[in-house]
Amino acid sequence: MKLFILGATGRTGKELIKQATERGYEIVAYVRSPQKLVPQGNLNETSKMEHALASCDAVLVTLGNPVNDSSANLFEGLMPNLIKSMQHTNVPRIISLSSLGTGDTIKNVSYPYKLGVKTFLKGNQADHEKGEQHLIHSNLNWTLVYPGPLFNGDKTSHPLVKNAASGYKMPGAPRTNRADVAAVMLDQLNNKSSYKQKLIMCSKQED
Question: Of 39, 54, 127, 129, which has the most beta carbons under 10 Å away?
Fold first, then answer.
């Protein structure tokens, strides 16, 4: 299987590439800086994106806004172009990283994390939500993954993963290791039960 990865140069993206390579997947990392990885192109250059997507089987998105511009319209602008490119190249599978508390997953969070969602995370999550609405209303086989605050800890054996629709309440401090996020995203590639589903997660071990 060949994977098309957006956000490959970020901390979660690098972990995703590492684990995908260990699992034997072929990688196409689409980035803006040609000196880092190839192929190179901007997120609004659909012809370049389609050319890179043409031989791929699935898309994984680990993009995120920079700290100094956390409310930028990244996902709102990206998703229509990405969806169109995937439809034109017949790539139906996409797994996209979001943020716990975005959209209706606010129902799955508790204090004190809920306070952060309503304050300093508000702009970033609003952009995620606008982009995700395009994805949700598309004909693609999408899965959205909503981790809590991200850290660089080791991969855990049994991260907590729940379907958001279950109404499960996450811990008040849902710390999530990027290594667990990468593993969960890759685990969904051939999991048809996760199609058109929102998965909430953190690195807390199951009881």
Answer: 127
